[in-house]
Design brief:
heterodimer; A: about 500 residues; mainly alpha; 22 helices; about 80% helix; globular; B: mainly alpha
Chain lengths: ~500, ~120
């Protein structure tokens, strides 16, 4: 193995670039034009940095870097296996696309109060959480991410935003305290914070019952962040309040960081009481799917409805973690790749609907098909991908997950996953018909103006291009499923055998 | 001493959670403060309390021997305290803003984003 200085830089780049972008933006606080330019360049550079990382990990295997050259179990270690690298790459893509969209979507008032700075610090936190190999450091990255998201959510200080922010902030702080408690207890028992080291120590501990208890604390804490079944109510209460670009980046990334943390800990550290912990995860996954989709039935607000769909589809990912077979993990990773792109795209679309129809309330909008047939097609493709109509991207992940569940004899969760799929199709078709086929419900005189038509051409392009990029990527996942499947299989083979991660992290100290 | 601390920490967790379940926003915030202090104290005592035994390796030894004060939890709480300080400062400002906008301190009144 080759751990040259060069490698160290590669893994740190996806962190350094957004951090520096944020800081440089901060230096130009009074110069809006400069901030915009730096923001765009930063987005492109972050994407390039994550591409370099992904390429290197794909070609040469896992990259590990010790910060400050402390030997492994003692210092903080950054480790990028294929899962981390893929997620960092997706963060780069989503961050770049939403970055362009936000140029037009975010109003000047918010830009003036540091939107761009916070945006890059959010990406910084997300990438850090994906790359760290130290469980306390994971807590710190969660906080970096959370505090940026708090401010992004409340920025603008509209009444609804502040009400949503109170719920979001409180419940996430409770989750952080629980996480900290769990980390403290784990350290007290195992005497280490390095995840690879913990994976070796924890199975040898005397009190396995207590380990399971700590595992449950982690489920609660990460479950809040990932919006698992009984703990998801903060999400639909807050995600529809900020501007669409903020909702888009939240929906695409933040809950997935929770899922990632759950996956990391429950595939490496807490794997010796699977009958108990992973059974709980499966039950929670099923409940999340059903509760989320049933919540989506009656929502009159497009973005609230989408927020419930975010909750519902977290269930599929957690189902893969709960089953913990090679095939199930393959399905979960396939679904994860698809889900990050599609959820971001959906919230960006909701912003466009608001511009075109004047509202996000479905009772106020209608007849968009007549005015914008191509937009209707785009919208249709994206929501059908979400529902999982065969050649589109959502189908393959669901197929693999359900097959994995059937192979394991977990018929209950397979049935729930299928039912949720059907109900999703019902919900998204209802949305599509409401927005596009139903006649315009408001009298022409009182109708909100079509802001979209009034925008200059460049602004229109800035709104449409990111949506089209993400749609093409989703279509690519659907039609090129073979390649994404190969990627997912490789990730799953690395995760199912935790020794891969452990050996690479510890190999450095030899 | 550890037993006393355990009781204290348990009491703080319970008190913090109780305060968080109150309807007033300010009480909720106080609950949050107590809760994070409880978590910090928990980490502080997690490896036992030691007095006057710094983690310094003897001149002739290769590793620490016997009981010593574990330096890592202290580093952890230092980080955690700084983070919770920042987050709580934000939460206080947020609550002030919410109060200015909605004119109420009662969490039950803040329902407009949950209902329709």
């Amino acid at each position: 193995m080759n751990f040259s200085e060069n490698h160290n830089l590669i893994i740190v780049l996806p962190l350094l670039v957004p951090m520096l972008t944020g800081i440089i933006c901060l230096l130009f606080w009074w110069r809006q034009k400069f901030q915009k330019g730096i923001h765009l360049v930063g987005g492109v550079l972050t994407l390039i940095a994550s591409l370099i990382l992904f390429y290197n990990v794909w070609e040469n295997g896992m990259i590990v870097s010790t910060i400050g050259s402390w030997p492994v179990p003692f210092g903080i270690v950054y480790a990028a296996d294929l899962l981390s690298a893929t997620l960092v790459l997706l963060t780069g893509i989503v961050g770049f696309c939403v970055g362009i969209y936000a140029l037009v979507d975010i109003d000047n008032e918010r830009k003036k109060f540091g939107f761009f700075i916070l945006y890059h610090f959010l990406i910084f936190g997300v990438n850090g959480a994906f790359l760290t190999g130290d469980i306390f450091n994971l807590y710190v990255w969660f906080e970096v991410m959370l505090i940026s998201s708090f401010v992004l959510l409340a920025l603008g200080s509209e009444k609804a935003q502040l009400e949503g922010a109170i719920k979001y902030v409180t419940i996430n702080l409770v989750s952080s305290v629980l996480f900290l408690t769990a980390v403290g207890m784990l350290y007290g028992m195992a005497g280490s914070l390095n995840m690879a080291d913990l994976a070796l120590i924890v199975p040898l501990l005397e009190h396995q019952g207590l380990v399971t208890l700590i595992g449950i604390l982690f489920i609660i804490s990460f479950g809040i962040k990932a919006a698992l079944f009984p703990l998801f109510f903060w999400l639909p209460a807050s995600y529809h309040t900020p501007p669409s670009s903020v909702s888009a980046i939240f929906a695409g990334l933040l809950t997935k960081v929770g899922v990632y943390a759950l996956l990391r800990t429950f595939s490496m550290i807490f794997i010796f009481d699977q009958d108990y912990t992973h059974e709980i995860l499966i039950v929670l996954a099923g409940a999340t799917m059903l509760a989320g989709i049933m919540g989506a039935f009656t929502q009159p607000d497009l973005r609230r409805l989408f927020a419930f769909l975010v909750v519902s589809h977290i269930g599929y990912l957690v189902m893969g973690i709960g089953l913990m077979t090679s095939l199930a993990l393959t399905g979960a990773f396939f679904y994860l790749i698809h889900d990050i792109l599609i959820k971001t795209n959906m919230f960006m679309l909701s912003g466009m609907v608001r511009r075109m129809g004047g509202s996000n309330l479905m009772s106020q909008v209608g007849g968009l098909y007549k005015a914008r047939p191509y937009f209707a097609l785009l919208f249709g493709v994206i929501i059908l991908s979400l529902a999982g109509i065969p050649p589109l991207s959502g189908f393959w992940g669901k197929l693999i997950l359900i097959k994995a569940a059937l192979d394991e004899g977990a018929f209950g969760i397979a049935a729930v996953a299928l039912i949720t799929g059907f109900l999703t199709l019902y919900v998204v078709m209802k949305v599509w018909i409401d927005l596009f086929w139903k006649s315009q419900p408001v009298d022409e005189l009182f109708k909100a103006p079509d802001e979209y038509t009034l925008l200059p051409m460049a602004s229109k392009m800035a709104l449409v291009t990111p949506v089209i990029i993400l749609t093409l990527l989703s279509l690519g996942i659907g039609f090129g499923a073979e390649h994404v499947l190969a990627l997912s299989e490789r990730i799953a083979s690395q995760i199912i055998d935790p020794m891969y991660y452990i050996e690479h992290v510890n190999g450095l100290s030899k | 001493m550890e037993v006393l601390m355990a009781i204290l920490i348990g009491g703080l967790y319970a008190g913090g959670l109780y305060m968080m379940l109150r309807r007033s926003m300010v009480k909720m915030l106080i609950g949050l403060l107590i809760l994070s202090s409880a978590a910090n104290l928990l980490i502080f005592v997690i490896n036992g309390l030691e007095r006057g035994r710094p983690p310094i390796i003897d001149e002739h030894a290769m590793a620490l021997s016997g009981q010593y004060a574990d330096p890592l939890p202290q580093a952890l709480i230092l980080t955690a305290i700084v983070i919770s300080f920042g987050v709580q400062a934000f939460a206080i400002i947020l609550i002030k803003k919410v109060y200015q906008k909605t004119g109420t301190d009662d969490l039950d009144q803040l329902r407009s984003t949950d209902t329709f």
